[in-house]
Design a protein that fits this description.
The structure holds two protein chains of two kinds.
Chain A: H1 25-35, H2 40-47, H3 51-63, H4 73-89, E1 93-97, H5 106-121, E2 127-130, H6 134-142, E3 152-155, H7 168-179, E4 182-184, H8 195-203, H9 205-214, E5 219-222, E6 225-226, E7 254-256, E8 259-261, E9 267-268, H10 281-285, E10 289-293, H11 300-308, E11 314-318, H12 319-328, H13 364-375, E12 380-383, E13 386-392, E14 402-409, E15 426-432, H14 438-448, E16 454-459, H15 462-477, E17 482-487, H16 508-520, H17 525-537, E18 539-547, E19 565-568, E20 579-582, H18 586-601, E21 608-615, H19 621-637, E22 641-648, E23 657-666, H20 668-675, E24 679-680, E25 683-684
Parallel strand pairs in A: 1-11, 2-3, 2-5, 3-4, 5-10, 10-11, 14-15, 14-16, 16-17, 21-22
Antiparallel strand pairs in A: 6-7, 7-8, 8-9, 12-13, 13-15, 18-19, 18-23, 19-20, 21-23, 24-25
Helix pairs in contact in A: 1-3, 2-3, 4-12, 5-6, 6-7, 11-12, 14-15, 16-17, 18-19
Chain B: H1 6-22, H2 24-34, H3 39-55, H4 64-79, H5 83-100, H6 108-123, H7 133-148, H8 153-170, H9 194-212
Helix pairs in contact in B: 1-3, 1-4, 1-9, 2-3, 2-9, 3-4, 4-5, 5-6, 6-7, 7-8, 7-9, 8-9
The chains are: A alpha/beta, B mainly alpha.
């Protein structure tokens, strides 16, 4: 600690604050207290004031905002959430672990957090029940440092198949080992084949004695299963067959201890109830301390149900799940997208109505199509009397496989700019961002069919799939063979290794082109389908939005994006993207896109690709070229050969400002087909 | 006891078209929160298309199955989007049922179940997926319970409409696993599913029709 030598008796007057504090004694005092760590007494000596004066200065510095005291955001959020949940659901306690936990899996973090909380809820002499599952096993493993005397751990249910590592037996024995308790199994299966079998087993002296232990339980640790198709409950072997096929369980939203509850937490009685050996839900609710450990967004509905049904006295979960529960229960939280808090401004200026060239909203799509037909009479014409079904004018060789594409309007020049010689044959157009109806697709299929069958190619959207599927059924009934493929090039909308779930965006253009070339070469329907699938599988796109588009229906922005934000991984319908982040330079954006694309595609030195830099409608060519420049720098650095580049408006989203980058990995076959000549009004070579 | 005849169904579709047109903005706004904001337009336009087609057979005392087939054809021919094929398939299932036998107005549950069956088939969804089925399925159950308890046509229809509304409200606590909303994962929590909300509107229209008949 510095002791200024100048401090002598002659300093009867208060010394002036050093220059850097701008003659502000409050700032000086605050600095000494908070930054230098001096005590108020020491400060009093330095500044030549009394200690109470220093104290008053410090208080004033806080009120004036010179000093602000901040609690770590994550800590604050956890605490706030925990009190909100405790209050709302009448809990005894609630432990929320921060949402951002780095690389550790949520289940592990839940396990160790619970283990830290256990000394407060488990005590010597307790009889503790535990259910099964991955989270329970993690809790049991993590509970190592708790040493209880005369404690007993009981399996909450009978046993299950040993094909999983987190069986009821495993969870209960591990917990007993960890905390030094006696272990009581339930020596019977959790689910038996009939109510009679259950009665007989429960009367067995050994089992009967074990079940009596369940009656003495005063603490229970339990997890929850959602009944969503991806839940481990379906692969656990706990229940045979599909639970939801049984009508009684149709309302079930979650499962705990092998029993089922609905959205309000009410117990669902069903045929399995009489065949289940283990603690019943009424008995569970009578236990003094009931600790639910669960997390993950798919667990939100069952957790909410369990909280509503009063199954829980102590809740352990993570911040994101906690927020999800409160929102699902109708509580308005200040930010519905918590992960944006650090980067996005909380207040987004709402832009009003945009100016558009529109006559009547409801005629916009038809009028646009009429105008397009007038602009390109050498390329496109309508099929029958509707402008919503359009064919290529070009003469087709006999016996050619027909290709029908289509989707919602608002993506122009998609899709009508991509029919013609060497391209698909017909296009069905829906309303803005909405699939065309089956009849219209059928009209296209009829027109495109020349006996060799028809291939439908469209983006992977629920609406498009259903309408094209119905059209395919109708076409088959008319004797037309139809195959369908969905484009799935948007890799940002899906998690790893799930390319079949991706949206179809700009990369669809390459799939149209290559499939069109295959059909123009008179390949069979089988071959055309194979090539279309191959092209789609080789095609990877990521889009970035800078400003939302506005629909002609509302003439307003379809989503809100802060002034300094961009949406990474955006689709072509104004849907939110994968990630919202601060706006940055063109090169950094391309770098981010490249990093993701290169990794996903496993691009190697010497690979050959085609590139599409596509505007979403509101971004000018100039900026697309800037993006293309960096893209080519990055590709050159990896020694990737760019065989073909397309830059421009190919697959737009009305007037959305933004762009997408598509890379198509080429082999000899795809290169040849891509190089064939073609003649659509938006794509000709 | 009254049957669900062609005229009741025509009146019902007209009432639904009117109600959906009034709710167009509300449904679009709901959809804007978790989808692409066109649900109100698609539903209102779809039922308006049904009403237009039904004008062609007005006064001809059409069979109820025929009315349902006309309604399905309007959705197949003019609607598209996501709701088009769902309701088209639902109405076709209903038509098939009505071809087999006549239904009393208190047999509403069977009609609702048929529509729900078609929707579930086409959309590959089930209860709890945060879709229109979360309104249709509870509505069918409530109609059956009411009829079993001896309720009259109006009470059965009211029970169905109320259950549909409750079911729609319950979608706030669900996470979508179908359609565009599914891509939002947990971000769609707390939002009402627009498809379930419009299904509740449709069942209110049925209640109105039966009550006034």
């Amino acid at each position: 600690m510095p002791h200024p030598k100048k401090r002598t008796a002659k300093d009867t007057q208060s010394p002036k604050p050093p220059l850097r504090f701008g003659e502000d004694p409050l700032l000086w005092v605050s600095w000494l207290y908070y930054e230098e760590g001096l005590t108020q007494g020491e400060i009093a000596r330095i500044v030549g004031a009394s200690r109470p004066t220093v104290n008053a200065y410090l208080a004033e510095a806080r009120t004036k905002g010179i000093v602000s005291i901040a609690i770590s955001y994550e800590k604050l959020r956890s605490t706030t959430l925990s009190s909100a949940l405790t209050e709302r659901f009448g809990l005894d306690d609630c432990l929320i672990i921060p949402g951002e936990g780095g690389d550790r899996a949520l289940i592990d973090r839940l396990g160790s957090a619970t283990a830290q909380a256990l000394p407060r809820v488990l005590h010597s002499g307790d009889t503790i029940a535990i259910t099964w599952g991955r989270t329970m096993l993690s809790v049991a493993d993590a509970a190592k440092d708790l040493h209880l005397r005369d404690a007993t751990v009981v399996q909450a249910t009978g046993g299950t198949t040993a094909t999983i590592p987190y069986t009821p037996e495993a969870c209960a024995t591990r917990l007993a080992d960890s905390i030094g308790a006696r272990f009581v199994p339930i020596s019977a299966p959790a689910i038996v084949s009939s109510p009679e079998a259950r009665r007989i087993l429960e009367q067995e002296p050994v089992v009967s004695e074990q079940l009596q232990m369940l009656g003495q339980v005063n603490r229970i640790l339990f997890g929850l299963s959602s009944l969503r198709p991806t839940s481990t409950i379906h692969s656990s072997g706990f229940f045979e067959g599909s639970i939801q096929q049984q009508a009684q369980y149709g309302q079930a939203i979650g499962s705990l201890a092998g029993r089922f509850i609905d959205g309000t937490g009410a117990i669902i009685e069903g045929p399995l109830g009489d065949r289940t050996i283990g603690i019943g839900l009424d008995a569970l609710r009578a236990i003094e301390t009931r600790i639910l450990v669960s997390g993950g967004y798919d667990k939100v509905p069952p957790m909410l149900a369990a909280l509503r049904g009063n199954y829980v006295t102590v809740l352990v979960t993570d911040a994101a799940t906690g927020e999800g529960i409160l929102r699902a229960d109708g509580l308005e939280l200040d930010s519905p997208r918590p992960h944006l808090k650090e980067t996005a401004p909380m207040v987004t200026p709402v832009r009003g109505r945009r100016k558009q060239f529109i006559n009547r909203t409801k005629n916009a799509v038809d009028e646009a199509l009429e105008g397009a037909l007038m602009a390109y009479p050498g390329h496109i014409e309508k099929i029958g009397d509707t402008v919503r079904a359009i064919r290529a004018v070009a003469q087709k060789p006999p016996g050619k496989v027909g290709i029908v594409i289509g989707g919602g309007a608002g993506h122009e020049p998609s899709f009508l700019g991509f029919v013609g010689r060497g391209l698909p044959d017909a296009v069905a157009v829906g309303n803005v961002f909405a699939s065309p109806p089956p009849d219209r697709v059928l009209a296209c299929a009829r027109d495109a069919d020349d006996g060799a069958g028809v291939l439908f190619i469209y983006g992977n959207y629920t609406g498009d799939i259903m309408n094209f599927d119905m059209a395919a059924e109708l076409a088959e009934a008319n004797g037309i063979t139809v195959r369908s493929i969905q484009t799935t090039d948007d890799i940002a909308s899906v998690s790893d290794n799930d390319r079949a779930a991706g949206r179809g965006i700009a990369g669809s253009i390459f799939v149209f082109k290559i499939s069109g070339a295959a059909s123009a070469r008179l390949y069979s329907l089988d071959e055309c389908e194979r090539i279309a699938r191959k092209a789609n599988a080789s095609c990877y796109t990521i889009g970035v939005a800078l400003e939302p588009g506005s629909s002609p229906e509302t003439q307003r922005p379809s989503f809100q994006l802060g002034e300094a934000d961009m949406e990474f991984g955006v689709g072509v319908h104004g849907e939110p993207g994968a990630l919202r982040q601060p706006m940055t330079s063109a090169d950094r954006i391309v770098d981010q896109i490249c990093d993701r694309l290169f990794e996903e595609m496993a691009l190697n030195e010497g690979d050959r690709i085609a590139v599409l830099v596509n505007s979403f409608g509101g971004t000018p060519m100039m900026e697309l070229f800037i993006l293309n420049r960096r893209l080519n720098q990055r590709l050159a650095k990896r020694n990737i050969t760019v065989h073909k580049s397309l830059v421009g408006n190919f697959f737009t989203s009305l007037d959305m400002v933004g762009a997408s980058v598509t890379l198509l990995k080429l082999d000899e076959e795809l290169t040849g087909l891509l190089d064939d000549s073609c003649e659509g009004f938006a794509y000709s070579q | 006891m009254d049957d669900i005849d062609g005229q009741i169904l025509i009146d019902f579709f007209r009432a639904a078209a009117t109600r959906l047109d009034m709710d167009r903005q509300r449904l679009c706004a709901l959809d804007g929160e978790i989808g692409d904001g066109d649900h109100g337009t698609s539903m209102a336009n779809g039922f308006a298309a049904v009403s237009r087609r039904l004008q062609q057979i007005k006064g001809q005392d059409p069979a109820p199955a025929q009315v349902m087939r006309y309604a399905a054809s309007a959705f197949i021919g003019e609607v598209g989007a996501t709701v088009g094929p769902l309701y088209a398939t639902g109405f076709l299932e209903a038509a098939r049922l009505l071809e087999e036998r006549r239904l009393a107005t208190t047999d509403l549950a069977e009609l609702i179940d048929a529509i729900a069956r078609g929707i579930a088939l086409r959309g590959d969804a089930c209860l709890g997926d945060k879709t229109m089925l979360d309104a249709w399925l509870p509505a069918g159950q409530a109609a059956r319970d009411a009829a079993d308890a001896g309720a009259g046509a109006a009470q059965v229809a009211r029970a169905a409409a109320e259950a549909a509304l409750r079911g729609a409200q319950a979608t706030k606590g669900m996470i979508a696993s179908r359609g565009r909303a599914a891509r939002l994962q947990e971000r769609n929590l707390g939002h009402l599913d627009p498809g379930a909300a419009s299904a509740a509107v449709i069942l209110e229209a049925f209640e109105e029709t039966v009550t006034e008949a």
